[in-house]
UniProtKB/TrEMBL annotation:
<feature type="domain" description="NAD(P)-binding">
    <location>
        <begin position="6"/>
        <end position="314"/>
    </location>
</feature>
<keyword id="KW-0521">NADP</keyword>
<dbReference type="InterPro" id="IPR036291">
    <property type="entry name" value="NAD(P)-bd_dom_sf"/>
</dbReference>
<dbReference type="InterPro" id="IPR016040">
    <property type="entry name" value="NAD(P)-bd_dom"/>
</dbReference>
<keyword id="KW-0456">Lyase</keyword>
<comment type="function">
    <text>Catalyzes the conversion of GDP-D-mannose to GDP-4-dehydro-6-deoxy-D-mannose.</text>
</comment>
<protein>
    <recommendedName>
        <fullName>GDP-mannose 4,6-dehydratase</fullName>
        <ecNumber>4.2.1.47</ecNumber>
    </recommendedName>
</protein>
<dbReference type="GO" id="GO:0042351">
    <property type="term" value="P:'de novo' GDP-L-fucose biosynthetic process"/>
</dbReference>
<comment type="similarity">
    <text>Belongs to the NAD(P)-dependent epimerase/dehydratase family. GDP-mannose 4,6-dehydratase subfamily.</text>
</comment>
<dbReference type="GO" id="GO:0008446">
    <property type="term" value="F:GDP-mannose 4,6-dehydratase activity"/>
</dbReference>
<dbReference type="GO" id="GO:0070401">
    <property type="term" value="F:NADP+ binding"/>
</dbReference>
<dbReference type="Pfam" id="PF16363">
    <property type="entry name" value="GDP_Man_Dehyd"/>
</dbReference>
<dbReference type="InterPro" id="IPR006368">
    <property type="entry name" value="GDP_Man_deHydtase"/>
</dbReference>
Length: 329
């Protein structure tokens, strides 16, 4: 009998890559969507799988809808990728961020406990939970959390809920503490995609400048298509556990900018970049770098795409998009 998976956040970045990965393993995929008047399936269409997913309605902030959904479909696995995941927006929308990222996880876990206790649950945790660190330059499963945003705080709550339901009720739950992972379908509000989108516009004459905040912030960036395999592998283990997932390298925003302009064939990137205080956060996280020894040893996972390949992939995809939209450019 084919396995079934419910993916929340199916319309975002990770959802489509995960759905594609699981479809290739003959899973039946349910994708959770809110009742939009006009939902955007663009990311699923980009990966050519929009018609291969069964869409089910529900809302992370509405417990009744999730209880009913789990009662009806009782999936083999749930991958909770839904979130208000834009860190900057979480300062302005702290309540929404909490309702979706924290209480939404409680709703899902309660639904599993009540109606489908054999369902395996994956929680998308984040390196932003580590926040401000005074450690030896990396973060692993033993590193204490010190979140620096409402987003990071909401994810810490969800992380410990996931651990608690595993310990208190014996439910198979796993946290994937994923460091930054990007792709050609990353939302344009996130800094890597903001950079490659602007560089593509500059390349074909649709923009003149790129406005950014802190160029010195360093992150551990990988490719989303690689990271969804780690999610899958976590739920194939004998018991639930928590794993840090990243490349083990970190690079500054400035380094990503330099690569993006170079791969677009645009010299002298400094002439186009404007450092704008508007894009600086109230409290910054200066540096994050994963130590993923546990994931490599137990899951057998490691990234396949390096930093330069990621930047090149994203720049080329955005240039291609704008050339299709502006064939005369």
């Amino acid at each position: 009998m084919a396995k079934t998976a419910l993916i929340t956040g199916i319309l975002g970045q990770d959802g489509p890559y995960l759905a594609k990965f699981l479809l290739e393993k003959d899973y039946k995929i349910y994708g959770l969507v809110r009742r939009y008047s006009n939902p955007n399936f663009g990311n699923l269409e980009y990966l050519k799988i929009a018609d291969k997913v069964d869409y089910v309605e529900g809302d992370m902030a509405d417990e009744a809808s999730l209880l009913n959904l789990i009662r009806v479909i009782r999936p083999t696995e749930i991958y909770n990728l839904a979130a208000q995941s834009f860190v900057a927006a979480s300062f302005e929308q702290a309540r929404l961020t909490t309702e979706v990222n924290s209480l939404g996880v409680l709703h899902l876990l309660n639904a599993i406990k009540m109606f489908s206790p054999t369902t395996k649950f994956y929680q998308a945790s984040t390196s932003e939970m580590f926040g401000l660190q005074h450690t030896n330059g990396y973060q692993d499963e033993k590193t204490p959390f010190h979140p620096r945003s409402p987003y990071g705080i909401s994810k810490v709550y969800a992380y410990w809920l996931t651990v608690n339901f595993r310990e208190a009720y014996g439910i198979f739950t796993s946290n994937g503490v994923l460091f930054n992972h990007e792709s050609p379908i990353r939302g344009p509000q996130f800094v890597t995609r903001k950079i490659t989108d602007a560089v593509a516009k500059i390349k074909i004459g649709l923009a003149k400048n790129l406005h950014l905040g802190n160029l010195e912030a360093k992150r551990d960036w990988g490719f989303a298509g690689d990271y969804v395999e780690a999610m899958y592998l976590m739920l194939q283990q004998e018991k639930g556990d928590d794993f840090v997932v990243g490349t083990g390298e970190n690079h500054s925003v400035k380094e990503f900018v330099e690569l993006a302009f170079r791969f677009a064939g645009i010299p002298h990137w400094e002439e186009y970049v404007v450092v704008d205080p508007l894009f600086k956060r109230p409290s910054e996280v200066p540096e994050l770098r994963a130590k993923s020894d546990k994931a490599r040893k137990i899951l057998g996972w490691k990234p396949k795409t390096n930093f330069e390949e990621l930047a090149k992939m994203m720049v080329e995809a955005d240039i291609k998009r704008y050339k299709i939209l502006n064939p005369k450019s």
